[in-house]
């Protein structure tokens, strides 16, 4: 009799749970379809990682997502900032003044804005993506400091998502001091990443290090300037076109060119909501600029997810 009752309860609960499950997967299907239409016929890819379930829920253009290896550009400024905080060699509240160009390692380096960003601390430098601030902090770090942090993200291997047919990126160690500066702004030929690896990177940041079996711990208050920089980037920095206000995103743009090529490619990585992240996203475009092309796409992706899962 008891067994019969249990059976009935199980059958009934299945009956009620099944529509709920279908509803959830229907939303995910819709998210995939809408992201396909957001990317349209542009060459690039979009990936969305569910930070609570710890699984990828959307990939538009899987082939490119798992096999295209390119420079990370300014996305890597997040890691050079983490390296500086890990080593205690830089006070994130110290001000560096960006005048548009400066000398490092006897070479002239330029910022992306000719007039300079003026007073930059770490939070502002992440938000405005000031090149010279990151060259300045690279000058205080050793190459081995940088390799130690960067190698935690396994760029030489496939991403921890471990997708079928996925390619590894590249982190080739060279013994030239000037390489520090190229590694600080993602311009080195010896550091190449896939969009899958950049989705992993921002997912680890959003989870403060606690993702899969990562050996990274970013829970200390020491790392607050990273999170605040990513949030400010969306509020008033290079990522402001990604700011879908109801979902409170944080993120970072990147723009880079391949050697001998005037065409630029573009990145955006980010997560939302800032205080209790649910999803992390990557947007990559073969042709474009971070602030004006990938950030507006990210805005539409955040909006689409929010409308499907919060309304
Ligand atoms: Zn600057």
Account of the protein in words:
42% of the residues lie in helices and 18% in strands. The protein has 311 residues and is α+β, with helices and mostly antiparallel strands. The protein has a single domain (35-310), classed as 3-Layer(aba) Sandwich (Beta-lactamase). Strands 2-1-11-10-9 form a five-stranded antiparallel sheet, with helices on both faces. Strands 3-6 form a two-stranded antiparallel sheet. It has a two-stranded antiparallel sheet with strand order 4-5. Strand 9 (250-257) and strand 10 (264-272) form a beta hairpin. Helix 4 crosses helix 9. Residues 9-22 have low confidence and may be disordered. It binds zinc ion. Zinc ion is lined by residues 98, 111, 116-117, 130-132.
Labels describing this entry:
two-stranded antiparallel ribbon; about 40% helix; alpha+beta; Beta-lactamase; 10 helices; single chain; binds zinc ion
Quick recap of the structure?
This protein has helices at residues 2-39, 62-67, 77-87, 122-128, 131-138, 143-151, 179-184, 195-206, 224-236, 290-310, and strands at 44-50, 55-60, 96-98, 101-104, 107-110, 118-120, 170-171, 191-192, 250-257, 264-272, 279-285. It is of the alpha+beta class and 311 residues long. β4 and β5 form a beta hairpin.
Sheet bearing the most strands, described? 5 strands, antiparallel
**What name does the CATH topology carry?**
Beta-lactamase
Mean pLDDT comes to 92
Report the CATH architecture: 3-Layer(aba) Sandwich
Using the CA coordinates, give the radius of gyration.
Answer: 21 Å
Name of the CATH superfamily: DD-peptidase/beta-lactamase superfamily
Structural class: alpha+beta
Tell me what portion of residues adopts beta-strand conformation. Answer: 15-25%
With strands numbered from the N-terminus, the spatial order across the biggest sheet is 2-1-11-10-9
Q: Could you say how many structural domains there are in total?
A: 1
Give the proportion of residues in helices.
40-55%
At the first level of CATH, the class is: Alpha Beta
Bound molecules: zinc ion
Task: Show unreliable segments.
Answer: 9-22
Q: What order do the helices and strands follow?
A: HEEHHEEEEHHHEHEHHEEEH
β-strand number? 11
User: How does the overall form come out from the CA principal axes?
Assistant: globular
Gap between N and C termini? 43 Å
